[in-house]
Write a structure and sequence with these properties.
With about 230 residues, the protein is of the alpha/beta class. It has 5 helices and 5 strands; from the N terminus they run βαβαβαββαα. It has one domain: Rossmann fold (3-Layer(aba) Sandwich). About 30% of the residues lie in helices and about 10% in strands.
């Protein structure tokens, strides 16, 4: 069964599986920021995070303020992590659009809502924002979103199913790998880079490794901040 539901266009993966059973991926992967709402899709987001974190370069995946120090300004930290990422995965479950706060107000309508702030920052940047649908959710309709999130509804979504999780994640990983190779590569004859961003682009094509399945020695970091999600 296809992981793409009605109204969701496919992010095509190409190339056969390697002899080890995974796509012939390398660490030429983007820095990934995972945005999700805890009350909507925490188990799915954690599973996706753990799958991605099985890659040898765990630091390329950021979720739920896992890299923020106690006492650090979390709004500034979120902005920093989004600014350093190249791809944002917006995990959308069935309650993502209509989740309410303790006052019964729709969270996405609140300007200071953490998830709203994350997605607005992503949409306003040059990063690739990918809506990831879980729990058989549909893409939000523009009439149900604040104007600052309207652009999200025009983006191609990717569906990750319960029964097809491994297959879907391999497709997503292959897409991210190919996108990185296309958008973040540098001219091989150019002078050595002199700043951190160019250094990253230069190093993206220097390494190679195959994606591995969850359960490796790399363990996800525990979140320090949940209540606003």
């Amino acid at each position: 069964m296809s992981p793409f539901g009605h109204g969701v266009r496919s992010l095509h993966a190409t190339g056969p599986l390697s002899t080890s059973g995974c796509y012939p991926l390398t660490p030429d992967m983007p820095r990934i920021f995972i945005s999700y709402r805890r009350t909507d899709s925490a188990p799915h987001a954690r599973r996706i995070y753990e799958w991605l974190s099985a890659h040898p370069n765990v630091s390329n995946v950021f979720m739920d303020l896992s890299g923020i120090e106690p006492g650090e300004n979390f709004h500034a930290a979120i902005s920093r992590e989004i600014d350093s990422a190249e791809v944002m995965l917006v995990i959308i479950g069935k309650q993502w659009t209509f989740a309410e706060n303790s006052d019964g107000l729709q969270r996405l309508d609140q300007p200071h809502d953490v998830v709203r702030r994350e997605v607005v920052l992503g949409l306003g940047s040059s990063m690739r924002v990918i809506p990831v649908l879980v729990s058989d959710a549909d893409m939000p309709q523009v009439v149900h979103l604040p104007a600052t999130l309207a652009k999200l509804t025009s983006l191609n979504a990717f569906r990750v199913g319960e029964q097809t999780f491994e297959e879907d994640m391999n497709r997503l990983a292959e897409y991210l790998h190919n996108w990185t190779a296309e958008h973040l590569r540098t001219d091989p004859i150019e002078a050595p880079p002199t700043n951190s961003q160019e250094t990253r682009k230069h190093m993206l094509r220097k390494k190679s490794a195959c994606w591995v399945l969850p359960g490796s020695a790399n363990k996800p970091r525990q979140s320090l901040y949940h209540e606003h999600l």
